[in-house]
Specification:
The complex is a heterodimer of chains A (523) and B (380). Chain A has 523 residues and is mainly alpha-helical. In chain A, 69% of the residues lie in helices and 6% in strands. In chain A, a hairpin with a 4-residue loop joins strand 3 (270-277) and strand 4. In chain A, helix 1 packs parallel to helix 17 and helix 6 crosses helix 15. Helix content of chain B is 69%, strand content 6%. The chains are: A mainly alpha (523), B mainly alpha (380).
Chain lengths: 523, 380
């Protein structure tokens, strides 16, 4: 493969996926917040809750369409740009994408139209049910795409078939109940709920600072603080940790996040700060808390967290075994009925992917020298500084969010949230933070999987389509231009809708601070 | 999942591929047609809003047929997904760029009163309707002609064509046929969904022309298939073997796409339905029988797509440059396990989807009127 094509393909995927994920988490979270707000409306019958639901629904709509628009690119990009990936794992990877369409996209896309257009055509409960189905649809789509992504991180329930030169499914249940997929699903949708909560909290706080729409803002804030606190706790507590000991690559990801160059005596310490240095294979100025990492990662006092150097040694062994499997596959290409080759393949089939890593420097892995094998083993280490810092910033924001929502929840419970301007400023300032954390989360997950497209199975540099650099530049520039223009338009429309506010007339009666009615806020 | 053997599963999934394409063309097809008609059937802002709101609550659900098409081809025909979308790389980009304009166009147009703002989104919606309709047809035309790709021994696909090379005369005929077919379908929808007045009248005028063009282009395309050097034939290999195209061989054969009609005359029903449907649509439009027109355009759509399938079986994507690379029903599918699982999932979920799609259309039943545009704040 032309390395330029590989890099451009990766750049385009990263840009389009990260851009897509600016809109998706808000859809995931805001849809459920709409369900909560509309439920309050249905139960209390107070018109203000309908205005609140419709207002946040308007922001939901402006955001939703860009999630849909950029999702189109994602659905087809595996085929357009990652053609060999699509052939190699389509037998497994395609299924969750198709089920996502059937089970989730139809649900959300069919009912989202009804949600916006049928306020007058449905009963109150009927409309609430429609809003719920939209929320269910969006969240189910997250489930299926994360089953697909989880399989890239931990390709369970599948085996290479030399007759068709691809991975084929052996146990679909294992693909569905992949523990990494399950952990990722909870982590990702919770992050979406946090993002939506922060937006509702921040915009409401902005209204309070402006002295506008106080009744709507105070009520919205109550919903956001409760939903946000539960979600922020869920993101961190049920976070991604559970899967980090499952496969060699997941162990490598953890070691890179911690810049743990060598296996430490159990229980390992958690690095708070440091400057990882790949060339020297050590971390300068490291500040460590003893025991914590061992406890989190292995849930025990004696479990070891394997270091980078030890994992590289293991990769070197697997490359050597993989060459034998590769040799068997080449013989089977020429003589599919060769039973000896078939038997040789069976012995080391799980290491076939490791031999493919050599293709970056030699055309035929069987001709690799021991030096080339040793050097390639170090390719299995993802970028340690990127992993180290992305994770720390993400996790730091995660803990900040818990603190913010705990405070918000406390203030709302004490009915103090309507007279604390310092807190409102804090909420407005917090708006961009969870988006940064979510994008960094994907960087940790996907950069941490490198050099693999499919962990241990298919190296990223073999996965792209055989395109020309010119074609890639055309689409890269094209997507950037379209996405850039749409981003500007979207943000302007969001800001205009927020400035306009939940109701048309702006001279609403302004109760004095603190004199808001003591009627139930969240019923 | 041992209910069906591998061959049967492959044929079922070939049929389901057609069902998906037809589902897309019948539902989102009229949305694309309406988009392409927008600047021509509606002149004032109120008229444009009426046209937009005639499809606004449903087009998003309909578009999922397209997305599902991508996902289902990935799951059931991974070779086809890998080879076709990377081979038609720039054409796919053009389609995606056009389709990206639709969700934002529908939603954002109504957010500002400014006529220049609205005019720009009207063009976006036109492009989002016309361009995909054209490129889909051109792509199908190229599939019928054969696509210049080869597979190496690792089954990696290498594409040797160019973007401009896609626009060969036969492919252009197919592209225009696709536009004519979907514009007829969209015009028929407008006559049903919009109150009597200027818009349905213009839709009838354009719809009549489009229906006649569809009949003519379908006939021209058929003549090119019969008398041009178009078509392929399977010549060797085990047709029921593992999904590995290198183990079978195919050759170009002029008129090869007519072989199935001779072997199984019942397949002639497909092109017949194509012609009859377009004719019925024309009669329905002329006679002001809205539902006859829409039924006719639906039948035409089904017939024309079924004709492509019936002509090509068992081919899905023939290679024009390598005898061992053509993708067929017998060499390009997923494993039997995956086909079985996906069949089960489809049989359970697709009927549910059809039920709530029908429910949603029923909730929004009735015509869009200029009065409602003025008073209903929920409309775009």
């Amino acid at each position: 493969m032309d390395p330029g094509v590989v890099d451009l393909s990766r750049l385009q995927f990263a840009l389009t996926a990260l851009y897509h994920f600016l809109f998706v988490p808000l859809t995931l979270g805001l849809s459920f917040m709409l369900v909560i707000m509309e439920s309050v409306y249905v139960m209390t019958d107070r018109p203000i809750w309908k205005e609140i639901t419709r207002f946040w629904g308007k922001l939901f709509g402006i955001n939703f369409v860009l999630g849909v628009a950029t999702g189109l690119t994602m659905e087809f990009q595996f085929g357009t740009n990652w053609s060999y990936f699509s052939h190699y794992v389509g037998d497994i990877f395609g299924a969750p994408l198709a089920i996502e369409g059937l089970m989730a996209f139809f649900l959300e896309a069919t009912f989202v139209g009804i949600m916006f257009f049928a306020w007058e055509r449905l009963s109150k409960v009927g409309h609430l049910a429609v809003t719920f189905l939209v929320a269910l649809g969006t969240n189910l789509s997250a489930l299926w795409i994360l089953i697909a992504n989880g399989w890239m991180q931990n390709p369970t329930g599948a085996a290479f078939n030399p007759e068709t030169m691809r991975m084929e499914v052996t146990d679909f249940t294992a693909v569905l109940f992949n523990p990494i997929a399950q952990a990722k699903f909870v982590h990702t949708v919770s992050a979406g709920y946090v993002i939506a909560s922060v937006l509702v909290l921040g915009v409401s706080a902005w209204y309070l600072l402006q002295g506008r729409f106080k009744a709507h803002a105070a009520r919205s804030m109550t919903v956001a603080s409760a939903f946000g606190l539960a979600s922020a706790l869920s993101v961190v507590v049920l976070g991604d940790e559970s899967g980090y000991t499952l496969t060699d690559n997941q162990r490598m990801k953890l070691a890179a996040i911690e810049a743990e160059w060598h296996t430490e005596k159990a229980p390992a310490g958690l690095a708070l700060f440091g400057i990882p240095d790949f060339a020297a294979r050590q971390t300068h100025f490291e500040v460590k808390i003893p025991w914590v990492l061992g406890l989190i990662a292995t849930r025990s006092l004696h479990g070891e967290v394997t270091g980078i150097t030890e994992l590289v040694r293991r990769a070197e062994e697997r490359i050597s075994h993989g060459i034998a499997a590769y040799d068997a596959v080449e013989r089977l290409k020429l003589a599919p009925a060769d039973m000896k080759a078939r038997a040789d393949f069976e012995i080391h089939r799980n290491d076939l992917g490791y031999a493919l890593l050599l293709k970056r420097i030699v055309d035929d892995p069987r001709k690799a020298t021991p030096e080339q094998i040793a050097a390639t083993a170090w390719d299995t280490v993802p970028s340690v500084p990127v992993m180290f810092w992305s994770f720390r910033v993400m996790a730091g924001i995660g803990f900040l969010m818990i603190a913010l929502f705990a405070l918000a929840f406390l203030l709302c419970s004490l009915r103090l949230h309507t007279r604390t301007p310092w807190f409102w400023k804090l909420c407005v300032a917090a708006i961009p933070l969870p988006w940064i954390a979510a994008e960094l989360g994907w960087i940790v997950a996907e950069m941490g999987r490198q050099p693999w497209a499919i962990d241990g199975v298919l190296p990223t540099f073999l996965a792209p389509s055989s395109l020309s650099r010119t074609s890639l530049w055309i689409t890269l520039v094209g997507f950037t231009a379209i996405y850039g223009v749409l981003a500007v338009i979207e943000v302007r429309l969001m800001l205009a809708a927020i400035r306009h506010g939940p109701i048309d007339h702006r001279d609403e009666p302004q109760p004095a601070p603190g004199s808001l009615p003591a009627t139930p806020m969240a019923a | 999942m041992d209910l069906f053997d591998f061959q049967t599963l492959r044929v079922i999934w070939w049929v389901l591929l057609g069902v998906l394409l037809i589902g897309f063309a019948l539902t989102d097809g009229y949305d694309l047609g309406v988009g392409a008609l927008l600047p021509f059937v509606a002149k004032s802002d109120v008229e444009r809003r009426m046209v937009i709101n005639s499809i606004a609550p449903h087009w998003e659900g309909h578009q999922v047929w397209f997305i599902l098409g991508g996902g289902a081809i990935f799951a059931a025909w991974p070779f086809v997904y890998a080879v076709s979308f990377s081979g038609f790389y720039l054409a796919m980009f053009v389609v995606l760029a056009a389709l990206i304009l639709r969700p934002v166009g529908f939603k954002y147009r109504s957010k500002k009163e400014d006529p220049a703002w609205r005019a720009r989104w009207d063009w976006a919606l036109f492009i989002g309707g016309f361009v995909p309709a054209l490129v889909f047809g051109v792509a199908v035309g190229n599939v019928l002609l054969g696509v210049p790709f080869r597979l190496d021994s690792d089954l990696r696909a290498w594409y040797e064509g160019s973007f401009i090379g896609l626009f060969r005369p036969f492919a252009l005929v197919c592209g225009l046929l696709s536009v004519a077919m979907l514009v007829t379908h969209g015009a028929a929808w407008l006559t049903i969904k919009i109150e009597e007045g200027a818009i349905p009248e213009r839709a009838r005028r354009i719809g009549s022309v489009a229906a006649i063009a569809a009949i003519a282009l379908f006939a021209i395309g058929g003549a090119m298939v019969a008398f041009g050097s178009i078509g392929y034939r399977v010549t060797g290999g085990d047709p029921f073997g593992p999904s590995n195209p290198l183990r079978s061989t195919t050759v170009p054969l002029a008129g090869g796409w007519l072989a199935n009609y001779a072997a199984a005359p019942a397949t002639l029903l497909a092109p017949l339905a194509g012609f009859a449907g377009a004719l019925l649509a024309l009669l329905g439009i002329r006679a002001r029988r809205q539902w006859l027109a829409f039924g006719g355009s639906s039948l035409a759509t089904i017939g024309i797509i079924a004709t492509v399938g019936a002509s090509m079986f068992p081919f899905i994507l023939p290679s024009s440059i390598d005898a061992r690379s053509s993708l067929t029903v017998w060499n390009a599918s997923s494993s039997a396990t995956t086909l079985g699982i996906m069949l089960f999932v489809t049989v359970v979920l697709l009927p549910i989807v059809l039920v709530y799609t029908a429910w949603a259309l029923n909730v929004m039943r009735g015509t869009v009127t200029s009065r409602e545009i003025g008073v209903n704040p929920d409309l775009y």
